[in-house]
Design brief:
alpha+beta, about 375 residues, globular, 22 strands, OB fold (Dihydrolipoamide Acetyltransferase, E2P), binds adenosine-5'-diphosphate, Rossmann fold, about 25% helix, 2 domains, six-stranded mixed β-sheet, binds magnesium ion
């Protein structure tokens, strides 16, 4: 028999009073045992609210939260946060300033397992402190620790009771870049080592892709796509996901028979890929947008071309080119270092097979300058 999923959310919706649009809208997702899910989206898209609903700090107005085989929230059922078997880590660490490291870590154990004897509390505390690499610092107080060390304490405190699910709300956002990069790798290793399922909230797309097994992209309360990092990259379900996750180039385009016509030339529609739920809209679209990834572009010198190389950077294995289109749009291209094209050169672009992604253009995102650039072509 297969094990039950660690977490199953079904149709979760939450409005805050007077808000016209929901903070969380009809979210359904499943997290399997040992899986690491990153919830990714811009500020205000509902990530924290969804996490608080799972933890039991907010009550959804509709939908069901199931932890393991137990329903912990539904229209007629409610389980309090301390009885949910989840651990939480916050952006601002939230340690007790008057307790030392060991006491902070033991706090959750004492609260949850009042019947446990002090020997086992001590053992679990020591284990959790070792797991996050803080052995030797047990007697320090939070103010005697760096931000990274404080966040390790918070993680140890959440892990000590061995919850079935760890919820981390932007845990690395207050840290310096160097510490952040190192800790994100360590957090992943620790969670994988002990096999705990986790949801990791972040607004940083690179962090989301790096840390997780699956990424859920949120937009205005909705879960726009749930998939592996590779799926989000190769098959973005919407323009929002494509733009937020991959930082690619976007070019307005118009369909002419077999081709997508743009200000820098035509692209064969047979080389393009459109998300299933968008095919009908994209193909009928008067205006669409083509997504061209920098690494899928090849450049060929052509004196008659209107596209000019404005700048070039050497990245070791690749050159990164900044290109300028006739309308003044900036495009990025990355190519191998076999050929080195001069700044100022005019170039033609070609795109790797199947590398084009097509999205119907949202009229609200089309500026006047872009519209006129399109009609010039
Ligand atoms: P995120 O964590 O993605 O930045 P939040 O879940 O914090 O987003 O917020 C989602 C939306 O809900 C925002 O519009 C926010 O202003 C609103 N919101 C969050 N918490 C409350 C609250 N306690 N009362 C009223 N509105 C709230
Ligand atoms: Mg938040």
């Amino acid at each position: 028999m297969t094990k039950p999923a660690t977490l199953h959310l079904e149709g979760i919706t939450k409005h805050f009073s007077q808000m016209a649009s929901p903070a969380v809208a009809d979210v359904t997702l499943t997290l399997n045992q040992g899986e690491l899910l990153a919830l990714l989206g811009p500020s205000g898209c509902g990530k924290t609210t969804l996490l608080r609903i799972v933890a039991g700090f907010e009550r959804p107005e509709s939908g069901t939260v199931k932890l393991g085989e137990r329903i912990v929230a539904s229209p007629d059922r409610w389980v309090a946060p301390e009885q949910r078997d989840t651990g939480m880590v916050f952006q601002d660490y939230a340690l007790f300033p008057h307790l030392d490291v060991a006491e902070n870590v033991a706090f959750g154990l004492k609260k949850r397992q009042s019947r446990e004897n002090s020997a086992s509390i001590k053992e679990r505390t020591t284990e959790a402190i070792a797991l996050v690499g803080l052995t030797g610092l047990e007697k320090r107080y939070p103010h005697e620790l760096s931000g990274g060390q404080q966040q390790r304490v918070a993680l140890a405190r959440a892990l000590a009771p061995q919850p079935s699910l760890i919820l981390l709300d932007e845990p690395l956002s207050n840290l310096d870049v160097q510490v952040r990069l190192r800790l994100r790798q360590e957090v992943r290793s620790i969670l994988k080592e002990i096999g705990t399922s986790a949801i990791f909230v972040t607004h940083d797309q690179e962090e989301a892709l790096a840390i997780s097994d699956k990424v859920g992209v949120m937009h205005k309360g909705y879960l726009e796509q749930l998939g592996t990092p590779e799926e989000l990259y190769t098959e973005p379900a919407s323009r929002f996901v494509a733009k937020f996750v991959t930082q690619a180039n976007f070019l307005p385009a118009r369909r002419q028979g077999r081709f997508w016509e743009t200000e820098i030339g035509c692209f064969d529609a047979l080389d393009s890929w459109t998300a299933k739920n968008q095919i009908a809209t994209a193909e009928n679209a008067e205006k669409a947008e083509l997504m061209l990834r920098a690494e899928s572009i090849s450049l060929y010198p052509d004196d008659t071309s209107q596209v000019v190389i404005q700048d070039r950077q050497f990245l070791g294995r690749e050159y990164q080119y900044q290109l300028r289109t006739p309308s003044g749009r900036q495009l990025q291209a990355r190519t191998t270092t076999e050929t080195r094209l001069p700044i100022g050169a005019r170039v033609q672009l070609s795109i790797a097979n199947n590398a084009l992604r097509v999205f119907p253009m949202d009229s609200s995102t089309l500026s006047d300058a872009q519209s006129s650039a399109l009609s010039v072509s």
